[in-house]
Design a protein that fits this description.
three-stranded antiparallel beta sheet, Rossmann fold, 3 domains, alpha/beta, nine-stranded mixed beta sheet, globular
Length: 371
């Protein structure tokens, strides 16, 4: 695959110690590009922490070469905030990432998503509810996102896959690692039919400090967060709090009074989360936000064309794309060859046409006209 010409600059920035997303976004806004930021950091007057200065003066070239080699593998991508198909819902908000490492179908990040989270040690009833809700949400066209953890997360991912729905796993490690390790088969299925997403550089271990950031990215990507069984102090509640701060919908399932895993959901309901008993309630509540996301993405693509490739935006171009798709399923790279457009622009427009019900995404990253 074609790698962006400034990839080494981006990788170097993302690996610079102690430079967080907030600082990097500010530097990008000031200097205009990753290359310009790298140059600015190398100036003698630039104030950096000792670890950051050490990296800037002598970056680990072998590590950067390994990152580049990993990104050259099929289905691997570094999705940066200056690209037209970077998720618009992650372009603002405290702690919004400046880049995501993706394994699988990056176009899924543009689709309306709902995060389904809950207890790792969920009860059998909680796991059944997670499966039921995730299956219904996937059938309604929503992408089910979760964190690849034990319990509710894994049940939601599996249910979405079983019902041919897209699913995203936002992980607290590098996208090249699987945690917990025994979920490696589930992770492989998600990468093949959905996407593994990480805000952390490859080879990042499962540090405790990573998971609150992972939860914030998960909440930011989604239109809403559905909590199914959670303790009063739990990662699911952290994700829900992040959703509230980012102005996302929060849904919670009530439980039995004697169940300690219902206390977190009851606390969320008291704090203003929407009590839901049926997936239809979640779907109805998120439909306006899904439409607004589609409108925002259309506006952004029209205003920010992908370098070197036409953006499919007007009616004539949409007609041309549908004609190029024909009546048989086609993969994204086939459509790029037929239209001459870039993959980022086409992936974004296909996501919008899917929202309009004019195309459908099939297994294996292929697309099919509808009607």
């Amino acid at each position: 695959m074609d790698l962006r010409p400034d990839l080494d600059d981006w990788l170097s920035l993302l690996r610079t110690p102690t430079l967080g997303a907030v600082t990097l976004r500010a530097l990008l806004a000031r200097h205009g590009s990753a290359a310009a930021v790298c140059a600015a950091l190398q100036r003698p007057g630039c104030i950096l922490t000792a670890p950051a200065r050490a990296w800037v003066e002598a970056p680990d070239r072998a590590r950067l070469a390994a990152d580049r080699l990993w990104l050259q593998q099929p289905g691997h991508r570094l999705l940066c905030c200056d690209e037209a198909d970077f998720p618009p819902q992650l372009q603002s908000g405290a702690g919004a990432p400046i880049a995501l490492f993706v394994v699988g179908d990056a176009a899924l990040l543009l689709r309306p998503q709902v995060a389904v989270v809950g207890a790792r040690a969920a009860t059998p009833a909680g796991l059944a509810l997670a499966s039921r809700f995730a299956a219904a949400l996937a059938a309604a066209g929503l992408t089910v996102a979760s964190g690849l953890a034990e319990g509710v997360d894994a049940a939601a991912h599996r249910a979405a896959l079983e019902h041919d729905g897209g699913t995203l796993a936002v992980v607290g490690t590098g996208a090249d690692r699987v945690y917990p390790f025994h979920h490696r088969e589930l992770a492989a299925a998600i990468a093949a039919r959905g996407a593994m997403v990480s805000p952390f550089v490859p080879a990042s271990p499962p540090l405790a400090a990573h998971f609150p950031q992972r939860n914030r990215v998960l909440a930011g990507l989604a239109l809403g967060v559905l909590v199914i069984e959670a303790g009063v102090r739990s990662g699911a509640r952290i994700t829900a709090r992040a959703a509230v701060e980012l102005d996302r919908e929060v849904f919670a399932l009530p439980g039995a009074i004697g169940n300690p895993l219902a206390r977190g959901c009851h606390a969320l309901i008291r704090e203003g989360a929407m009590l839901v008993e049926d997936p239809v309630e979640v779907i109805a509540a998120l439909t306006p936000a899904a439409r607004a996301l589609g409108a925002e993405l259309r506006s952004r693509l029209a205003a920010e064309p992908v370098s070197g490739a036409p953006v499919v935006a007007d009616g004539a171009s949409v007609t041309a794309l549908l004609e190029a798709l024909g009546h048989l399923p086609a993969a994204l790279d086939e459509l790029c060859a037929r239209t001459g457009a870039g993959s980022a622009a086409l992936a974004a427009e296909l996501a919008l046409l899917e929202l309009d019900g004019r195309v459908a995404r099939l297994a294996g990253g292929r697309w099919q006209r509808v009607g």
